[in-house]
Design a protein that fits this description.
heterodimer, A: 48% strand, B: six-stranded mixed sheet, four-stranded antiparallel sheet, 10 strands, 51% strand
């Protein structure tokens, strides 16, 4: 499968625990995005990387959220001290930046439930 | 139409009819637009894109129209099929040199196709 891969697909955690999600983008894509989606809403942008550089992180929801892309390939999104309001679908997308930017391809998402 | 509360705008059509889904975008600097289809429990799937130097683009059974004067985008689906039932999102992307490249999504429209 050469698409965007996200793991795990589902995560149930207790309030206060930390969780980490992984995203493997399409291999030649240099841009990687994280979005959050709640029921009935469109994807809400969180952060994005170009290669290993995190170019926009001001829209991360709080300082409990952090993301990394250490080698410019896969990325992780961590939520510390989870709250029930963090329950949502977390989506990753990747694209290729160049003279003409390409569309962002999305993974299947990780559905987080905080109990 | 306009959304109210948490309920998505909904378009119900009969199988075989043509569907038109509308989207108003907000950023006059947006230069690239994408329509995505999202089925329940899955990530958004690319359908068709259009750049601002065009006002119409056709794909297989789908046509996107762009009116930059009124910042309006539409997706036309010909001969709608039950498999087209999903939520449809438009995403706008400003192409600013050296700036952030962040696909921004609207709330979406739920398309229901009745057999």
């Amino acid at each position: 499968d050469t698409g965007v891969s996200q793991n795990p697909r589902h995560k149930i955690t207790k309030r206060g625990q930390n969780v980490t999600f992984r995203c493997d983008p399409i291999s030649e894509h240099n841009r990687l995005y994280w979005y959050r989606q709640t029921l009935g809403q469109g994807p809400e942008f969180l952060t994005y990387f170009q290669n290993e550089a995190q170019l926009e992180k001001s829209r991360l929801l709080s300082d409990r959220f952090s993301a990394e892309r250490p080698k410019g390939s896969f990325s992780t999104l961590e939520i510390q001290r989870t709250e029930q309001g963090d329950s949502a679908m977390y989506l990753c997308a990747s694209s290729l930046a160049g003279p003409i930017d390409t569309e962002a391809f999305f993974g299947q998402g990780t559905r987080l439930t905080v109990v | 139409g306009e959304s109210v509360g948490l309920h998505l705008p909904t378009l119900s059509v009969q199988e075989g009819d043509n569907s038109i889904i509308n989207c108003a975008y907000s950023n006059s600097a947006s230069d690239y637009f994408i329509w995505y289809k999202q089925e329940s429990g899955k990530g958004p799937q690319f359908i068709i894109d259009i750049r601002s130097n065009m006002d119409k683009r056709q794909g297989q059974r789908v046509t996107v129209l762009l009116n930059k004067t009124v910042k309006h985008l539409s997706l036309q689906i010909a001969a709608t099929q039950p498999g087209d039932s999903a939520v449809y999102f438009c995403a706008e992307i400003p192409l600013t040199s050296g700036g952030s490249y962040i696909p921004t999504f609207g709330r979406g429209t739920s398309l229901i196709v009745h057999p």
